[in-house]
Amino acid sequence: MRIIFNNILPFKGFTAMAIYPFILIRSEFKSYQHSERWNSLILHERIHFEQQKELLLVFFYLWYGIEFIIRLVIHRNTYLAYKNISFEKEAYQNDKKISYLSTRKRFNWLKHL
């Protein structure tokens, strides 16, 4: 895992994104490193790493994009579409559980479809 701070990805309005094996974090959130939010942020992205490995990275992004479009049609709101993607639901529901990755079952995101 390598953390890269930058001003390009993720797009403005988002904090971080995982592209295995990198976590891209917007530069304005560099101060998070010394806060309680940091561990949650990193765990959230590490959950995405596991999802990406399960779907061989390419299929993760394909599924993510298709599910986002479907959710956008349903919710007619980009934020709600994003929050309702199965990968995001799993990550948000478990990003405060420190031991989650050691007990996580493979393809657990399917429960959130």
TrEMBL record:
- According to the record, the segments passing through the membrane are 7-25, 55-74
What keywords tag this UniProt record?
Membrane, Transmembrane, Transmembrane helix
Q: What is this protein called?
A: Peptidase M56 domain-containing protein
Q: Which organism is it from?
A: Flammeovirga kamogawensis
